[in-house]
Amino acid sequence: MTEILRPHRLRLGVNIDHVATIRNARGGDHPDPVRAAEIVATVGGDGITAHLREDRRHIRDDDLARIQSATDLPLNLEMAATEEMLEIALRHKPHAACIVPEKREERTTEGGLDAAGLHNQLAPVVGRLLDAGIRVSLFIEASPRQLEAAMHLNAPVVEFHTGEYAHADLENDAEKRAVELKRIADMAALAAKNGIEPHAGHGLTYENVQPIAAIPQLAELNIGHYLVGEAIFTGLENAVRRMRELMDEAR
Ligand code: PXP
């Protein structure tokens, strides 16, 4: 029998930060991101992603342990490369840690990590996470310079920032979108060729996810804000299921 070769299934990591944003708006405990994590687990999400920010504007320290004990899904902790976050990561031992740049005043993670420029600061953090058995990824722009820096840092995974692609309007900025898509596809191929597992995320929606999901080397997408927004209208179950369907269709 001939085996049909298919690209591996693309994993969906659901970022539940903004469930916590809504909770924190009133200072109580509803809606609970743990309940969101449980729902993601029942509808075929492959992982939970959460960003513990320095200012704790969404996910808080006690959420991490509660998420970890509520589901068997792997937790991907997004974190700045600081001593404080490193200590928290080593204590909680999430399945994965994704190192992101963080500016206190930004609304969201605006760009990729300068893995090339920050080599000396990142090297000990990456090393200690890897020594603790935590899978490290670096959230970078899809560029040869950043990819090369990730290789020098021995990062097993990179996550490409899809913001430029996602924010290029399909009708008015189709050319920019195509250029950005090609950049991500080329870098995903280069990463895989060099033994690094490529992921992608930021700004992905039902409308723009498929060309990204079709990039065969990508192993995981991390999607948050849009899914939580859609959940308001259709429920989190339906939003995750729909995203999953679109990703599967694109492969
Ligand atoms: N991946 C990383 C590393 C992120 O920091 C974020 C949130 O900024 C996401 C994925 C998800 O982005 P979004 O909420 O726009 O889907």
3D structure, described in words:
The structure is a single chain. The chain has 251 residues and is an alpha/beta fold. The protein has one domain (11-120, 128-250): Aldolase class I (TIM Barrel), CATH 3.20.20. 47% of the residues lie in helices and 16% in strands. The chain has helices at residues 17-26, 33-42, 61-70, 83-92, 119-131, 144-152, 163-167, 174-193, 209-213, 225-234, 236-250; strands at residues 11-15, 47-51, 75-79, 96-99, 135-140, 157-161, 197-201, 220-223. An eight-stranded parallel β-barrel has the order 1-2-3-4-5-6-7-8, surrounded by seven helices. Strand 4, helix 5 and strand 5 (135-140) form a beta-alpha-beta unit. Helix 2 (33-42) runs parallel beside helix 3 and helix 10 crosses helix 11 (236-250). The chain starts with 10 loop residues before the first strand and ends with a helix. The structure holds pyridoxine-5'-phosphate. Residues 15, 51, 78, 98, 100, 108-109, 139, 159, 201-204, 222-226 line the site of pyridoxine-5'-phosphate.
